[in-house]
Amino acid sequence: MSTTSTSPLPGKPDAPQQAGERRQAASAKPVTWKTPVLLTALGIVAFIFFGLMGPNQTARFGLSSSGDFFQLPALEVPAFLGGIILSVLMLGLAGYAVYLKTKDQAAPRWVPVTFIVLFVAAFLIWVVGGARTPSISLAGLIAGSVTLAVPLVFGSLSGVLCERAGVVNIAIEGQLLGGAFTAALVASITKSPFIGLLAAAVAGAVVSMVLALFSIKYLVNQIIVGVVLNVLVSGLTGFLFNTVMQADKATFNSPDQLPIFDIPVLSGIPVIGPVLFKQSVVGYLMYIAVIVVWVGLFKTKWGLRVRAVGEHPLAADTMGIKVNATRFWNVTLGGAIAGIGGSFFTLVAIDSFTEEISGGRGFIAIAALIFGRWNPVGAFFASLLFGFADNLQSIVTIIGTPVPSQFMAMLPYLVTVLAVAGLVGRSRPPAADGIPYVKG
Amino acid sequence: MTDQNEPQHPGGQPTDPDADKNDADKHHAGKHHLPTPAEEETAAVVSLDTAGGAMEPSAVPATAQSGKIPGPPETLVRRIFTGSGMVSVLAVLLALILGGLLIALTDKQVGTTATYLLARPTDFLSAVWSAATRSYVALFQGSVFNPRGAGIAGQIAPLMETLTIATPLITAGLGVALAFRAGLFNIGAQGQIIMAGILAAWAGFALHLPLGLHLLLVLVAGIIGGAFWGGLVGYLKARTGAHEVILTIMFNYIALYLLRYLLNTPAFQRPGETNPISPVLDASAAYPQIFGSQYRLHLGFLLAIAATVFVWWLLNRSTVGFEFRAVGANPKAAQTAGINVSRSTILVMAMAGALAGLSGVAQVAGTEKVLTDGVAATYGFDAITVALLGRSTPWGTFAAGLLFGAFRAGAVQMQIQTGTPIDIVLVVQSLIVLFIAAPPLVRAVFGLNPRRKKRPTAGKTKTAATTGGAA
User: Fold this and answer.
1) Residues 6+ apart with CB under 8 A from B335
2) Is there a contact between A214 and B185 if contact means CB atoms under 8 Å apart?
């Protein structure tokens, strides 16, 4: 899927490149006003809402939980002042981007990233400061965000593996759902959550193999197969849930939960301890998977081949790489990873399967994949951001803020629209993404 | 990418009013004759191909892809059985068989007889047969004709219900199909239905106007709502190049949460109600029922027929529709030929949204009469499968909408009578679309693959020329 057009729109004159700017590499496209304008607009919004119209209370963020081996004092921020300072910083960044644009240079990567961090911080202060009880546990917020992000991370890694090899994976939702169902079923029958975890990987891989078969062998449009597979898996799991699982819940839908491994001492570190060192197997696997996929894709021969297949299959083929075999196995591997992510729903988060348990998270995973620019690490942080928004949504309902929870729920999708419309620089998919390769 | 290796398409396509067919014809020495099944298939392949949303769909003549294999002419019988219509029928059949097996697999009676399978295999087989057929008979009785109904009116009641449910499927399916033809993947019918529902419902319960005028306003409000939501996607795509699949998926969620928010505001929530539900629409804002109050079938169905005719006219007889198809077939060539691709993108998405908007109006003014957060049910997603099954042609979409409407209506009866969950419909629907998209698979299952001298590599891939292209 090409998410951004590289060609300028017809009728929109492009400033002819000055000779002095030739050093900007001939292939780089002309710097657009998109990022500076968007940053400025968001900065002004932040200044008005989070700054000038900011609440007068003091927002209190608890940093430690009672189990930590040393306690940190709570962070207290006067909401009004905090909003002003942060939004002025944001405007500064926007101004810097505008300044660079006037010199025909693109803003470096850290500018929008820092901007996002500041914006989220200001937003958080504003939300908490305006609440009835202006106090939340930051540690709990972050731990909850990571929990909610786990399936998203696995899903987006699946997308990265598929799309880097040139196959669009819209079926992430189906892979998550298939994994969740199979994990619950097999873990219940075998009484072993670990076998359930394995089965979930197999189920995800099977869904992926159907995608691979139809899109690579039968050359059916990949988006069509993906969309249809989501429906198929939803129907199959729903059908089997209603016939098999509901008939005998005790035998077929009461999986044992994966144990939480608590690494002593380390898990007691405030804020990051529980996030990094008090997780289930799936949680730890998530960190490992992100690192392995990143190293694999960008530091190994295998990864180079995969990316070649996704960028220029003809060239890869000429070099003797088996394009379609590479794609097939990459898609299968991606499915297995998404399947593991799906098992999180039934083996860690909730103790049984229900229909549509994945609840559209496969689509948010796609959003995270794009927001993370088809990079495993980027996708990981994007997933965390979306998990954070998801968690914040439930928390703000509890502490009673003026922001309707529906808008919080809408946030990941709005952010994604902004992202694909070009906020975070150019997010460019692999060149051959979605194009079947026919050897000829 | 196929077009690197294949001859470039002669520039005639964008200026040729009936590109698909002429492509096919050219390769038959321009002779004028009735389309053979094989040709129909290539035409369908092309339509699915452009549906494939390819930004660079095959600039390759359809027949070049499908490869007329040189050799002895195929027999007429063989042509009929390998043709596109037959593949569709076989795909439906195969999907129903698999669905039946799934039903049988989870049936208790089948499970019991399976324990003594080797002793009395006939028991097992008859249990399998009866489990599957029982469900399908119930499905049929719930969707077409119920022999136990009271009088002829009661007996055709299921058929009326089928048409009622088919109404939103058809119009939303047309929206998806229209976008497909312009090379755009409109996954956003769901959101467009919701936005149409919001505006139409508001006009229906908040305003109080005379009969006729009120309904007209509701209709227009709904169409505008859908067209706005679809057009916005088209605009963003044209301006920024963002991919419409991602945009439409995101816009679906944004619309849903907007609806949920609105249903909790005083402007939309029914007074004295804590649930998120709107007031009932005025009687003057509702679609009249076509055959009186005993059936739910409403004016929306006639509008769906009109919409089908309109889309057919638009695509096959109008300049705008020709531009849509040209852009769908090859945006670069279309641009070279002087077509404003950006304008076409925005316009086609707005029209697709307007068509989906008709579904939204059918829901709030026809069947539901209120606005809830389930206003779109799953019609927007089903519409995608409807358009795919209909191969993105207006009448194909119409027929597919009727079929899936029948599945939906019948499934309710089936669940009541036999306990088979409604989800089986999703399975059968998606299998149908999968099989139809891969004709070689279906033909292989039924042993109908055309006899051919296989070239070592290209043999089977060439027929399956549903190259999605660069989506």
Assistant:
1) A10, B341
2) no
